[in-house]
Specification:
The protein has about 500 residues and is mostly helical. It has a single domain, classed as Amino acid/polyamine transporter I. It is about 70% helix and about 0% strand. It has a two-stranded antiparallel ribbon.
Length: about 500
C-alpha cells in the first residue's frame, strides 16, 4: 500500500467550476485589482458619505461618525465568512448560489428574491443621489423633473458601458476607483490639514440633536450613515466566473474593499465636518445640501467644479457596478431555471460575453422606480432604507446557512480559510447582522403610518410575493442545479488537491 504523490494544493479555474457542476463559459479578464475596483466602486465611500452626510448630522450630530467604525468592524466579520464561502464556490450570482449550496433551493430562492429587489432599489437610490450632484456640475436647477432625466441618463450610460463587455466594466471600475480615492482620501486630507475650521472635539458633541430625549436614541437613529456605506463587497463574488483565480483573489478583494472603504469614508466624513463653515446650520437642518457649499468655501468655484466632476464619475461607476452585479444575480437565477423567462435571462451575448437580457432588466426596473420617486419625492429615503435592510437580510441568510453547515461538520475547502477561528467569526457575524437589522427595521416617528413603516411594508411585500410565487409556481421543481452540498464539495476539492490522500495498491 502506498499513497499517491502530492497533488496541486488548489484547483484550476475550469476544474474548480467543473466540480461545482458548471462549464467555464465566460472570459476571465478581471484581475484582483479590477475585482477590488468593482467592489470598491459598488461600496463607494463617496456615494455613501455624500448621499447621507446631511441626514446623518441632522439626526445624530457629529458623533454619527462612530458608526463608520461600528459597521465597518461588523461587516468585516461578514466579509470573512463570505470569503470562505466564495473561495469554495467561485460562481456567478453571489448570494443566491451561496445560499443554495449552503442550504437548499427554496431557501436560496427567498434569499435571492429579497437580494435582487434590494439591489435594484439600490441602483435607483444611487442614481437618484448622483443626479443632484450632476445637476450642480452642469449648472442646472435641481428639481424633480431634472433629477428624473439625469437619473435615467445615468442608468442608460451604465447600461451602455455594461453592454460593451467585462473589459470595459473593469476599465471604468478602475477609473471610478481612482476618482473615489482622490475624492475621499485626497480631498479629505486636504480639508483636515489646510481647511479645518472646527475642533476634533465636535465628534463628541451632539450639538443638541437629542432635543428633550436621550442622545442614545438619536445616535441609533443615525445608524444608516454606516449601514448604507458598508455593503458592495459581495459584488466581488457576483462576477466570480469572469475573474482569474477567483478562489484566491475574491476573498482578498472583499477584505480590501471593507478596509480601504472604511479608511476613505473616515477621511471624507471627518474632513467635511471639520471644514464646514457653519456646522450648526447643517446639524439643525437649515443647510440640507451642505457639501457643494463646503467645497466652494474651501476650494473656490473652479475647485468645487473639479471635485463635483470627480464625484459624478464615482456615482456613474457605482451605478455601473451595481447594475453589473444585479445582472449576474438575475443570470444565475435564470441559469438554474428559478425565474419566469429563465431561458431569456440566462442568455449570454456571444459577442461581448455578458448577460445582455439580465442587464436590460437591471436597468429597466430602476428606471420605473425612479419615475415613482419623481411622482412622490418623499419615497427616496424610505426606498434607501428598504434597500439596505433587504441586503442585510440576504447577507444574514448566507451567514446563517454557513453556520448551519459548520454545525453539521463543514470545513471550508477553498484556498482562503479561517481555520478554527471560522466558527467564532461566523457566530459574531450573525450576531452583528441581527443587531443591524433591528436598527434598520425601527419605524420612523413622523406620525404618518405609511412613511414610518414603509421599510417593513416594502420588505413584507417582497417577502410575501416571493413566498407566494415559491409555493404556487414551485420554480425549484424544474431546477436540477446542485444544492446543500457544502460538505460533499469540500471533500471532493480536498480529494482532488490531495488534502484527503487517495490510496492505491502497487502491483
Amino acid at each position: 500500500m502506498s499513497q499517491t504523490p502530492p497533488q496541486p494544493t488548489t484547483l484550476g479555474d475550469g476544474e474548480h467550476l467543473e466540480v461545482l457542476g458548471y462549464d467555464d463559459t465566460f472570459q476571465r479578464s478581471m484581475s484582483l485589482w479590477a475585482n477590488f475596483a468593482l467592489g470598491f466602486t459598488y461600496l463607494s465611500p463617496i456615494v455613501g458619505v455624500y448621499s447621507l452626510f446631511a441626514l446623518s448630522l441632522s439626526v445624530g450630530g457629529p458623533p454619527s461618525i462612530w458608526w463608520i467604525f461600528i459597521v465597518g468592524a461588523g461587516q468585516l466579520l461578514v466579509a470573512l465568512v463570505f470569503g470562505e464561502v466564495v473561495s469554495q464556490y467561485p460562481i456567478h450570482g453571489g448570494i443566491y448560489p451561496w445560499a443554495r449550496r449552503l442550504w437548499g433551493r427554496r431557501y436560496a430562492w427567498l434569499a435571492g428574491w429579497v437580494y435582487i429587489w434590494a439591489m435594484i432599489v439600490t441602483v435607483t437610490a444611487v442614481a437618484e443621489y448622483g443626479a443632484g450632484f450632476a445637476a450642480s456640475l452642469i449648472g442646472i436647477e435641481s428639481n424633480a423633473t431634472s433629477n428624473l432625466l439625469i437619473t435615467l441618463a445615468l442608468l442608460l450610460l451604465a447600461l451602455g458601458i455594461n453592454f460593451s463587455g467585462t473589459k470595459w466594466l473593469a476599465r471604468v471600475a478602475r477609473i471610478g476607483l481612482a476618482a473615489e480615492l482622490v475624492g475621499v482620501i485626497g480631498l479629505g486630507l486636504y480639508l483636515l490639514i489646510f481647511q479645518r475650521r472646527n475642533d476634533f472635539s465636535v465628534f463628541f458633541d451632539s450639538m443638541g440633536v437629542e432635543g428633550d430625549g436621550t442622545y442614545l436614541a438619536a445616535f441609533f437613529g443615525a445608524a444608516l450613515a454606516g449601514l448604507f456605506l458598508f455593503y458592495g463587497f459581495e459584488a466581488c463574488g457576483d462576477v466570480a466566473e469572469e475573474v482569474a483565480q477567483p478562489a484566491r483573489r475574491i476573498p482578498v478583494a472583499m477584505i480590501l474593499t471593507i478596509l480601504v472603504g472604511g479608511v476613505s469614508a473616515l477621511f471624507s466624513f471627518s474632513g467635511y465636518v471639520l471644514a464646514a463653515p457653519n456646522l450648526q446650520d447643517i446639524v439643525s437642518g437649515a443647510d440640507a445640501d451642505p457639501i457643494p457649499s463646503i467645497l466652494e468655501a474651501t476650494l473656490g468655484p473652479v475647485g468645487a467644479k473639479v471635485f463635483l466632476a470627480i464625484t459624478v464619475t464615482a456615482f456613474i461607476s457605482c451605478v455601473l457596478s451595481l447594475q453589473a452585479a444585479a445582472s449576474r444575480l438575475l443570470f444565475a437565477f435564470g441559469r438554474d431555471g428559478m425565474l419566469p423567462g429563465h431561458r431569456w435571462l440566462a442568455k449570454v451575448s456571444p459577442r461581448n460575453k455578458v448577460p445582455a437580457n439580465a442587464l436590460i432588466v437591471a436597468c429597466t426596473i430602476p428606471a420605473i422606480i425612479a419615475v415613482l420617486v419623481w411622482i412622490n419625492a418623499d419615497l427616496l429615503v424610505p426606498v434607501t432604507a428598504f434597500a439596505v435592510l433587504g441586503i442585510y437580510v440576504a447577507f444574514q441568510m448566507v451567514v446563517l446557512g454557513a453556520l448551519r453547515q459548520r454545525v453539521k461538520g463543514w470545513r471550508p475547502a477553498g484556498p482562503f480559510s479561517l481555520g478554527r477561528a471560522g466558527f467564532i467569526v461566523n457566530v459574531l457575524a450573525l450576531a452583528y447582522g441581527i443587531f443591524a437589522m433591528y436598527l434598520l427595521a425601527q419605524p420612523g416617528a413622523s406620525g404618518d403610518f405609511f412613511t414610518d413603516w414603509v421599510v417593513l411594508i416594502g420588505l413584507g411585500v417582497v417577502a410575501v410575493t416571493g413566498l407566494a410565487y415559491l409555493l404556487i409556481a414551485r420554480p425549484e421543481r424544474g431546477s436540477t442545479a446542485p444544492e446543500g452540498d457544502a460538505i460533499a464539495v469540500a471533500d471532493e476539492i480536498r480529494r482532488r488537491t490531495g488534502a484527503i490522500p487517495t490510496v492505491s495498491r502497487e502491483s
